[in-house]
Automatic annotation (TrEMBL):
Identification of the protein by name: histidine kinase
Enzyme Commission number(s): 2.7.13.3
Organism listed in the record: Chitinophaga rhizophila
InterPro entries named in the record: HATPase_C_sf, HATPase_dom, His_kinase_dom, Sig_transdc_His_kin_sub2_dim/P, TPR-like_helical_dom_sf, TPR_rpt
Known catalytic reactions: ATP + protein L-histidine = ADP + protein N-phospho-L-histidine
Membrane-crossing residue ranges in chain numbering: 500-519
SUPFAM superfamilies: ATPase domain of HSP90 chaperone/DNA topoisomerase II/histidine kinase (SSF55874), TPR-like (SSF48452)
Keywords for the protein's UniProt record, in alphabetical order: ATP-binding, Kinase, Membrane, Nucleotide-binding, Phosphoprotein, Transferase, Transmembrane, Transmembrane helix
Residue intervals of the Histidine kinase domain: 563-756
Length: 757
């Protein structure tokens, strides 16, 4: 056994039995040789499991791979009989599950993975448990909403286990799968949250092959109506794919989604070009489902060009290929068929698809992303068939869904249809209201459209410029080739003469240098040594003087800084006293409320400066201590808050004063609002305060209550008070993002990067 194999052999024999199951990327022969040389039951168990996993991990498990997998799993069971370690038993069940699932034996595979899950819950192997949760998620269908929720739950738990184990690559993969599932569910905000975490981890790891992640981010941006950002992400994905020389089905997906974005921007020519490139890749891989999905991207282009017959012919071809479509594919097949027949005014044929769409809608949750496609199609059908009451009903449902998931484009079209239905029914007040709403949404879409048009023109310019550069380079190459042929013969002769002269001159120069260098060496060495000694002596003297001076200056600086903070706090206390005095002479409730709010803000800043002049605390604020003290101050000052419980979950975070002040003011605004408005006097409630790291040097501040929340129909952007505007401004100062959510109470979330000294 050579030394490398010997090192690997000892590494696998259980020298580190408490670590997570190691992923060893070695060929099967090396593992088999290590198994032959192994002489411990623990080492043999681990090696046989690695061999079983190597065979089951091969694409499309062949009969020979299946037999090898089963053989090594049985050997692992025999070796584990003597050591009886539950971890190896769980790992064996995990591999059994992968093998059974590959063979289509779902029930056996599910039983095996549940056994592994149950076993690992009693142990402390987070990486193994993460692997089991990821495998268990494969048994749930993303096209069935209830199973999709279970899959999302498993991916989330797996990401937590990988994070606990310190396994950054697998944590990033789990978060990416989690974001993709949220995208399939139509929950774009949750998808973006997890995908941005994935992107941050990939950048920390230095990953280059992240075209799939950018492609997914672009798809979500397009789905939310931000076509400019969608185009930016799509082109970034395409650029990385070209750099990585990616010609797989991943590139097919990138071109397909880029085609959708370009269509939404109104560039049908570029959209068709990207769709054709995507279709060519799918055809090369003979991937029928992808061919079907890509083909349907041509349908809206035909409909926009008023060519419904072409669109209908294409849909008939798709249906002939797609014998057993899943629910979401049934939705886009049925909606496209209805659109084709409605545009052709063949309403009786369109009507045959309406019951199916209603049945599919009833199976999904109210705010499922695919409801927007169904409701929009139903509205179009009922408007064209003069069934205005039904059109109004589904316009209301469509507006509710679009507002919840942020579908601006669909919302604009829906308001216009709603206006037409109300007008046809003679309900002119509602018609005017919905037409105004249409204009408001359409104006916001116009801004996005203009940004998208600019991005599209930039892309077109880049494409044209690239073509010009390629043509110019080709011309230069041809010219240089001709010149090179003419000069090559002359250069050969000149090179020979030049080389002879250079060689002779070099040898003569070398002799002169060697002779002179021997003489100068000793003289130079002595001179440098003396100079160095003088410099060292002078530097030592200067350094001693600088150290003494620096110590004095540091002491003076520290005293001055503490004195400044002390005086700032005293001045703030004086201002607070003046505000209290002024309040005693006021009878106006709004003025008293404004003075009260200003006093709480002053106290928030004053407490920070108090912390800064305490001994040993010159630059950073301990947020754990600060938040607890400020919460206690508000609790005492308001009085009568026995019905409110404050739940604090604060990480050991220390912030610079430039960040601590905005965080303190945001915390003050959110807490005072929760104390004053969230609960009635007789109701008990909870206010949760959390400050946690979401990634390295990135923090999330959350202040949430379980109170009454915003009134129905309350628009934060239109009706936000000064406190909300102040929190938005302070969030921008932190270079962070503010989210105010009203679900089972009010939740204020600020995500911002921590400034590191």
């Amino acid at each position: 056994m050579n030394r490398l194999l010997l090192v690997f052999h000892y590494m696998l024999l259980g020298i580190l039995p408490c670590t997570a199951f190691q992923r060893v990327d070695l060929p099967v022969p090396a593992l088999q040789q290590a198994l032959t040389d192994c002489n411990t039951d623990t080492g043999k168990t681990r090696l046989t499991l690695l061999l079983a996993e190597a065979f089951v991990g091969r694409p499309g498990i062949a009969p020979a791979d299946w037999d090898s997998t089963m053989m090594y799993l049985k050997l692992a069971t025999l070796y584990n009989i003597r050591i009886k370690h539950p971890r190896w038993e769980a790992r064996s069940s995990f591999i059994y599950s992968k093998a059974y699932r590959e063979k289509g034996m779902r029930e056996k595979g599910m039983a095996a993975i549940l056994h592994a899950h149950h076993t690992l819950l009693k142990l402390d192997y987070p990486q193994d448990l993460g692997d089991v949760l990821m495998e268990q998620a494969n048994y749930y269908n993303i096209d069935i909403e209830a199973e999709l929720k279970e899959r999302i739950s498993l991916y989330g738990k797996a990401a937590q286990q990988y994070h606990h184990a310190g396994d950054m690559p697998d944590e990033a993969y789990a978060l990416k799968m989690l974001g993709d599932c949220y995208h399939c569910w139509g929950k774009y905000d949750e998808a973006l949250l997890n995908l941005n975490k994935t992107l941050a981890l990939y950048k920390r790891m230095g990953r280059k092959d992240i075209q799939g992640l950018y492609d997914l981010l672009g798809t979500i941006a397009t789905g939310k109506g931000d076509y400019s950002l969608g185009l930016t992400y799509g082109l970034q994905a395409l650029r990385i794919a070209e750099e990585q020389r990616d010609t797989s089905m991943q590139l097919c997906t990138i071109y397909n989604r880029l085609s959708i974005t370009l269509y939404e921007l109104g560039d049908c020519k570029q959209a068709i070009d990207c769709a054709m490139k995507s279709l060519n890749i799918a055809t090369r891989y003979n991937d029928t489902p992808s061919i079907v999905v890509i083909s349907t991207n041509f349908v809206p282009i035909y409909l926009r060009n008023n060519e419904p017959e072409k669109a209908l012919d294409l849909m008939h071809k798709v249906i002939s290929l797609y014998r057993d479509p899943v629910s979401k594919d049934q939705i886009w097949i049925s909606t496209n068929m209805v659109k084709c027949y409605v545009q052709m005014k063949q309403y009786d044929k369109a009507a045959t698809f309406i019951p199916g769409l209603l049945a599919l809608s009833a199976k999904m949750s109210k705010y499922n992303y695919y409801q927007t496609s169904i409701y929009g199609t139903l509205v179009r059908y009922y408007l064209n068939t003069a069934q205005y009451e039904k059109a109004v009903k589904y316009c209301a449902l469509q507006a509710d869904v679009c507002q919840r998931i942020g579908q601006i484009n669909a919302m604009s079209l829906n308001y216009l249809c709603w206006y037409r239905a109300d007008s046809a029914l003679g309900n002119y007040a509602a018609a005017i209201k919905h037409f105004k709403a249409y204009k408001v949404v359409n104006d916001s879409m116009f801004k996005v459209s203009k940004a998208g048009e600019i991005a599209r023109l930039q892309v077109q310019y880049d494409f044209d410029q690239k073509d010009k550069d390629i043509t110019l380079k080709q011309q230069n190459i041809e010219l240089l080739t001709r010149e090179g042929l003419l000069q090559r013969a002359a250069l050969k002769e000149a090179m020979l003469t030049r080389n002879i002269i250079i060689f002779g001159a070099f040898m003569l120069l070398l002799l002169l240098i060697l002779s002179y260098n021997r003489y100068q060496l000793k003289q130079e060495s002595n001179r440098k040594l003396q100079v160095k000694q003088d410099e060292i002596f002078q530097q030592n003297q200067s350094l001693q003087q600088l150290i003494v001076t620096q110590d004095k200056l540091l002491e003076e600086k520290e005293w001055l800084v503490k004195e400044i903070h002390h005086r700032v706090r005293n001045n703030l206390q004086i201002v607070m006293s003046l505000l209290n005095t002024q309040a005693a002479y006021l009878n106006d409730a709004d003025a008293l409320e404004a003075i009260s709010e200003s006093r709480y803000r002053m106290q928030a800043i004053s407490l920070i400066h108090q912390k800064l002049y305490l001994p040993g605390n010159m630059a950073l604020i301990d947020m754990q201590t600060y938040i607890r003290e400020h919460t206690a101050y508000l609790n005492d000052d308001f009085g009568g808050l026995q019905h409110i419980y404050f739940d604090l979950d604060i990480a050991p975070v220390k912030l610079d004063v430039s960040q601590a002040v905005p965080v303190a003011l945001i915390l003050n605004e959110a807490l005072t609002n929760a104390i004053k408005y969230a609960f009635r006097q007789q109701d008990n409630g909870t206010v949760s305060i959390s400050l946690q790291y979401t990634s390295h040097a990135h923090l999330l501040l959350t202040i949430a209550d379980n109170g009454a929340g915003f009134p129905a129909g309350f628009d934060i952007a239109a009706n936000g008070a000064m406190g909300i505007r102040l929190m938005e401004t302070l969030s921008e100062q932190l270079e962070g993002v503010l989210h105010i959510l009203s679900r089972e109470g009010i939740s204020v979330q600020v995500s911002f990067p921590q400034q590191l000294s």
